[in-house]
Write the structure tokens for this entry.
Amino acid sequence: MDCKDNCPLLERRCVKPTSNRILVLKTLTAAARPMSLSEIEETIGTMDRSSIFRVLTLFASNHVVHTIEDGNGVLRYEICDGEDECTLQDMHTHFYCERCHRTFCFKSIQIPSIELPDGYIMHSVNYMVKGICPNCAH
Amino acid sequence: MDCKDNCPLLERRCVKPTSNRILVLKTLTAAARPMSLSEIEETIGTMDRSSIFRVLTLFASNHVVHTIEDGNGVLRYEICDGEDECTLQDMHTHFYCERCHRTFCFKSIQIPSIELPDGYIMHSVNYMVKGICPNCAH
DNA sequence: ATATTTCATGCAACAGCGTTGCAAAGTGTA
DNA sequence: TACACTTTGCAACGCTGTTGCATGAAATAT
């Protein structure tokens, strides 16, 4: 494959832009917050759960999206912003509201880094704050 | 209940120390790393999954243990060290090895704090690093 | 243009984790 | 001893994530 397609986000990652893939990508782009598999399924409505899963898995391994655990045992998917690889750009903090069970994305708040003990190799970091969101605190 | 039992860790939290509860507590204490429900079940062998679950739920709400998501969709339980409440004392970082799927506990590395946007109320934080542990990096 | 291979999709089914209802066993109390 | 309350085990369930398989679509070769 030569990476010359008409969907820039997928093209950049050498992912063949099938209609389903574009659909999933648009759904994720439209949502302000990281979405779960079920949420995507509901939003799209016409696409099979396993197909969405496979698209997301492909996206994740090609750095189109990355995943976070939302603090409730559910995986959520979020579009990678980084130009090149899914790097520090994407290492921002998240907030899980224990009341409304929504996950918020603090893109402007980067994850403070720590120094690991010798021998540990870091691939990614997840910084998840749990609490109550402004809406639910009323 | 008057909190005067013979198991200090449970007594302090006003949890009646039944034999099963002590068993779960000892299992958790003996393990160096945070354990999952299944791990506890296997280790104990004689106790029903749901009973363990209920004990852990009770422990968690009485701040005997706290839970972390291990980066693999599995909940893990860890004994709270804090004297009083489950506070900063317990807010240390964790490491999930993507190769051996074990979760490590960096008790000496505290989670660096961030400033939340207005209106968000923080209850707890999870700082989870994913990568390769020294054993697996060989 | 047609045949052949490759890839993507939908359906069905499954495993594992977390969770609950219910009845029996255990514990404490009057 | 009788009674109330708690704890436990068994069974079952829902949900998330995941895979096998057969069909359909797309790309490639003939």
Notes: The longest strand of chain B covers residues 121-132.
